[in-house]
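Hi F.,

I've been meaning to write this up properly since the lab meeting, where we talked about keeping a consistent format for the predictions we share between groups. The idea is simple: the sequence comes first, exactly as it goes in, then the structure tokens exactly as they come out, then a line or two of notes. No screenshots and no reformatting. I'm using this chain as the first example so we have something concrete to point to.
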Amino acid sequence: MEFPVRAREAHSPGIAAIVGPNGSGKSNTADAVRWVLGEQSLKLLRGKRAEDVIFSGSSSLARLGFAEVSLYLNNEDKKHGRRGGGTDIEYDKLVIKRRVYRDGTGEYRINNSKVRLSDIQLLLSQANFGGRSYSVIGQGMTDAILSASPFERKNFFDEATGVKQFQIKRESAIGKIKSTEENLAEAKTLVREISPRLKMLAQQIEKRDRRHELEKELHALQTAHYGALWHNILKKREVLSDRTRAIEKDHLSLTKKISELHNKLAKLEQEQKSVAIGGYEKVQSGYRESLAKKNGLAGSLAGLERELEILRRMEKTHPSNIDAEKLTQSAERQLALLESLEQASSLAEFKALKPKASALYKELIGILNEKTQRPADSEKILEIAKTIAALKKELTQAEQDATKKQNLVDKLRHAESKATTDVFETQRAYQELQRELNQVVAQKNQTDVELAKVETRTQDLQEEINREVTGRLHQAIKNHRPSASADAGASWEKIASTKNELEMIGAIEASADDEYRETKKRHDFLAAQLADLEEALEKTKRALEELDATIEKQFKSAFEKIEAGFSEYFKILFNGGSAKLVMYKQNELEVLHEDVVAGLTKKEQERLARNIKIGIEIKASPPGKKVASIHMLSGGERALTSIALICAIIRANPSPFVVLDEVDAALDEANSERFAHILATLSRDTQCIAITHNRATMEQSSILYGVTMGDNGVSKLLSVDLEKAVASVA
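Output, unedited:
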């Protein structure tokens, strides 16, 4: 169904009338408009269930699966009530569509884009019309305005005064405030729940950071302490190793020297033994033999010389008193003694001949002392002299041989003495070297013991390092070079103190850092959200205050216009009388019974006292009557009163269009004409669509739509353009 702009004046949208017999479906047009504009009350739509708006079928047609209404609005001029009912939205043409299925699901669309019902309501409120306000006024609604309570009537006036869009925003703001406060309370609760955990985690992180600092400090102390110990022990081991190598070198040198001396000593002892055994004894024996021979010859020579001396002496003193025979025999025995002396090979043999020589000597003395009467034997003396001469010669040779052998003995004795001296000196040198070697061995043993201790300490230190420090510090410890002022004792005290502090801190959960970051992130998010929510809440509250001020200002201004129009149209329709609107405020606490108020807490009473409600009271007195309440008016009077109010609202705040569903049904002919003239005046600013049986209303219409229903139960339309019809008749 299309309602084009057809008017007697170029600026007037005009009136479109929908006519037809009862039951033909005329009111379905109003219901369809109300439904597409978001009506949710099934009672107003003359149904009980959502699917009641869907065609249920007839004897000749099957039922449908969904119901759909599309409302096309011309918005080319973007102005309310001008050329098709424009509104200041961005679309030139506006199509509002609503569809519902039998399963109860449905959808809204604006220009074929899915939207929410709230979007529809806000759009309609901005365009100054809505589904349940004066834009669609159905049968019984006019009386409902009068029958409603003052506070219920206020809802109708909200749309009538054009503050509905602000109230929708206000309700949205209130809902947003409530939602924000709930979110704020929830966020605060979460923050309160998270804060202790975050604080505990922050303490753990602080402990962890302190632990990291202490661990870093401990690692530095351990590196310095164990590095100094490791460096010193390595240095000591190096010194001992160098000393060991030097001692081993000395030991090897001394061992070599001792071996050389030992060989030399053995050679000297062999030479000494060789001298003693081989040459010296033989030369000594020869020397003794030569000495014995010389002594024997000397003895014999001495004996012969004595004998010769005796003989010569006797020859001088006793020339013939010596027994020559005895003397000869004694001489022979002396010669035999000399031969024995010559043959003696040893000193013992030589000594053994001494008694025999002594006896021969005594015998010779005795012979010489004997007095004989024989004369001296000159030949004997001569023979003895020859013998003496021979013995002297022989004695000289014996002396030379003895001297020669004496020199050889001395020489051998000197050689033996030198050999002995060399042996002794070599032995002393050997013993000295042996003492040095023993000292070196002792030093080596002591160094080996110290080195073993150092190795043991090195192993113990390595085990201590492995036990006390982590693996990554080992290389740092081994690469550490201690300063000259490094104090191992002080370092160890600091290490013990640091480790004790670490033990006091205790272990930190590995997940604490991640949990802290997550908790901190969540806490910061919630804190930011709290700030945003508080800021948004504050802005929304300020916006709510501004909306309240705007609503109050606009409502008051529009209400004054409606009140003036109501009084004017009431007098027109009633041809006199008086009517007015009274607005008053009352808080929710005032409407409660005192017994109920007594049962409320002070806080609840304060809350109810802050909730101010506005009521609208209608005062109407037809000509010649004084009516205390509108409930005392007759049905016709009530209808005229409500029509006067509706007309006042339309004039005060023109809607792009208004649908009047048999509003004039209860009017008589005179009042119908008055209403039709008023409606024609209002149609200059508002496109009026009237569902009517009234002849006066039809006469004022620019176009008529006839509605009829066939046997199949489907309504059909028939349109008549009255201006064209009049022009064709003329």
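Notes:
The first helix runs from residue 27 to 36.
The first strand starts at residue 15 and ends at 19.

If this format works for you, I'll send the rest the same way.

G.
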